[in-house]
Design goal:
The complex is a heterodimer of chains A (about 120) and B (about 500). Chain A is an alpha+beta fold. Chain A contains 2 helices and 5 strands. In chain A, strands 1-2-3-4-5 form a 5-stranded mixed β-sheet, with helices on both faces. Chain B is of the alpha/beta class. Chain B is about 40% helix and about 15% strand. In chain B, a hairpin with a 2-residue loop joins strand 1 and strand 2. In chain B, helix 8 runs parallel beside helix 9 and helix 21 crosses helix 22. The chains are: A alpha+beta (about 120), B alpha/beta (about 500).
Chain lengths: ~120, ~500
């Protein structure tokens, strides 16, 4: 039950971030690209031609710390590898790219807020 | 702008270096990196600072926080940087005006709830800050008494992180209690009047306190060796304020203010146990070099009871500071020099069982054991001891006599008078006490009367004394002359000095 709930929360967060990126004139290329090593939540293409690989963290409370704190250095490294994996499979190695993270906080009254940090590594 | 800078002080021995604490908060994942060779206690600052900040209702920046302590090459240790780091982070986080903290020095350890804890070595740290032109320092409230010894610096004593922040943001702070200085050279508990009898040992203590001559007390257990040694500081002249500050700086670094008030003008007395290690005696340590017993006794008395029981290396490690008045400790992280100008007082039993004195009737030691026992004090060390006094068991007459001996105050007056005579005589020569007269001077300007010189030369010829012994005897004779208001040492003074050295070389 809980897992399902979390999945729903996560999916909602990704939805919110996609809308946010579209609002910034970025093109959403792929959602939930999955290979054996892991998953990329959102792949987007910025107007300046740079690919953005976005990890979305959605939380309904900060009782367990800020969402960004859930991203350890190892996790950041895996995102880097996944990004290169995506570029390789799509024949786009050598293109400009960046790793972004987004934190979506859901409030009890149904509203939400986004914190977006671009170009981490 | 997410950059801020403030200052703290890193101590290397007694030498302080101003450390710039710079904080940069960059976009990125939450991270904290501390640069500038921190040791373990300092690396843990991250967790203390963060908890203190959150528990003081401040916001921890969930970004990439880089803290740099420069100069980067200087190894830094201890928890005293917590406060400076915390303030710099908050300033970089734009909750404190950066210009407000640029010329301040912050010293203090943070506890998790935001209270500011005391740090070691505050006094030398503030001295370094003042030398570098910093006029205002924020220090732990617990250390306030010690910190206010610094003249000409504004000292802000703070007990909690919240009050520091309130002060930095609004300029308001609670009026700090001004501490009335009780510069005091009295020891409430100890007085020479308590010592029954022992005229020889009393005189030797007076001479030692006047001229700075090292002393060995030999006597059976219970004769009063320890009593006498403990009371020597009470007859030494009160420390000058500059000297007291030096003493307090060393004690501050060692964190030993529980036993000694920072405003005491009484000469310190340190009595390490005879099992003390060499490092504890002269100072040392791998990460932070701490002063040893001989530096804590700077301008005071280093009293070692049961000296022959000490491992020989320990006593002999004192030879260099006895000569130089300072001790330089070399470790892989660098060299540190501490002051170590002390009066050495050794006490020893005459033999392993302790009863070989007077007629020695109940002594159970063999004669070889007796000889070997005091022989454990090495020749080079004994050579530096000018007064070797036998403390006999207190007799029934001394014990029964109702009148008390002379009080410390009376003796101290004589000591001060004799010292001022010596200081006048040596003014402009770069030393002030008789024990410091250079050998050249002893054969030149500061020779005793000719008859006394003849006596000493005779003794030298009979090989009763060495050339160095001759010099030492003249130095003690000068102190005797000063105490007896003789203009130059007479034959009697020299003979007395000779006798107090133990007559024949050990």
């Amino acid at each position: 039950m809980n897992t399902k709930n979390n999945q729903r929360t996560g999916a909602f967060g990704e939805e919110v971030v996609s809308a946010y990126l579209t609002g910034k004139n970025a093109e959403i290329i792929e959602r939930n690209w999955r290979i054996r090593e892991g998953e990329i939540d959102i792949v987007a293409l910025y107007p300046n031609g740079s690919f953005a690989f976005v990890e979305v963290k959605t939380r309904s409370s900060i009782a367990f710390g800020h969402p960004f704190e859930a991203i350890s250095p190892q996790k950041a490294h895996r995102m880097q590898r996944l990004a290169l994996g995506w570029l390789a499979t799509h024949g786009a190695l050598g293109c400009e790219y960046q790793i972004d993270v987004a934190a979506v906080l859901l409030a009890a009254d149904g509203s939400h807020s986004i914190e977006y940090r671009a170009n981490l590594l | 702008m997410s950059l801020a800078q403030t200052s703290s002080v890193a101590l290397f021995g007694l030498e302080g270096h101003i450390v710039n604490v710079e904080v940069d908060i960059a976009d990125g994942l939450p991270m904290y990196s501390l640069l500038g060779l921190p040791d373990a206690a300092l690396s843990e600052s991250r967790d203390r600072v963060r908890a203190a900040m959150v528990n003081s209702c401040e916001i921890w920046p969930n970004r990439k926080v880089t803290v740099s302590l420069s100069p980067a090459w200087l190894p830094k240790s201890g928890s005293g940087f917590d406060l400076a780091i915390c303030i710099a982070i908050l300033s970089a986080h734009q909750s404190i005006e950066p210009a407000r903290i640029r010329n301040l020095v912050f010293l203090g350890e943070l506890s998790l709830d935001g209270r500011i804890r005391s740090v070691r070595g505050l006094l030398p740290a503030l001295m370094a800050a003042q030398k570098n032109g910093i006029t205002t320092a924020v220090v732990p409230f617990e250390n306030l008494a010690e910190a206010q010894l610094m003249q000409g610096m504004e000292i802000v004593g703070m007990a909690h992180l919240k009050s520091v922040l309130h002060w930095l943001r609004t300029g308001e702070r609670e009026e700090a209690p001004t501490i009335e200085y009780q510069w005091s050279a009295q020891d409430a508990g100890l007085d020479f009047a308590d010592v029954a009898g022992q005229p020889d040992a009393r005189l030797a203590a007076e001479i030692a306190a006047t001229g700075g001559h090292h002393i060995l007390l030999i006597g059976p257990p219970g004769a009063g060796k320890t009593m006498i040694a403990e009371r020597i500081p009470t007859i030494m002249p009160a420390l000058k304020k500059s000297e007291a500050l030096e003493v307090s700086a060393v004690h501050s670094l060692a964190g030993s203010f529980t036993s000694r008030s920072p405003t005491s003008l009484l000469a310190p007395i340190i009595s390490p146990h005879h099992t003390t290690t060499r490092v504890a005696m002269v100072g040392g340590g791998a990460h932070a070099i701490r002063p040893g017993a001989c530096s804590l006794a700077h301008h005071g008395v280093l009293f070692i009871d049961e000296a022959p029981e000490c491992p020989s290396g320990v006593l002999d490690s004192l030879r260099q500071p006895l000569e130089a008045g300072t001790i330089t400790i070399a470790r892989s992280i660098g060299n540190v020099t501490f002051p170590a100008s002390f009066l050495l007082v050794l006490a020893a039993n005459p033999c392993p069982c302790g009863k070989f004195s007077g007629r020695g009737r109940s002594c159970t030691c063999t004669s070889a054991q007796v000889r070997r026992y005091l022989g454990k004090l090495s020749g080079p060390l004994m050579d530096r001891i000018d007064l070797r006094v036998h403390v006999d068991p207190v007799g029934r007459i001394d014990m029964a006599r109702n009148e008390l001996g002379e009080t410390s105050a009376t003796i101290r007056e004589r000591v001060i008078a004799a010292r001022s005579v010596a200081e006048m005589r040596f003014s402009g020569l770069g030393f002030s006490r008789n024990s410091e007269i250079p050998a050249r001077g002893l054969r030149g300007d500061f020779r005793p009367v000719p008859a006394a010189m003849n006596f000493l030369h005779d003794e030298l010829e009979r090989e009763h004394i060495t050339a160095r012994g001759l010099h030492k005897i003249i130095r003690v004779a000068w102190t005797l002359a000063d105490l007896a208001s003789h203009e130059i040492p007479t034959l009697a003074d020299v003979k007395k000095a000779h006798a107090m050295r133990g007559g024949v070389e050990i």
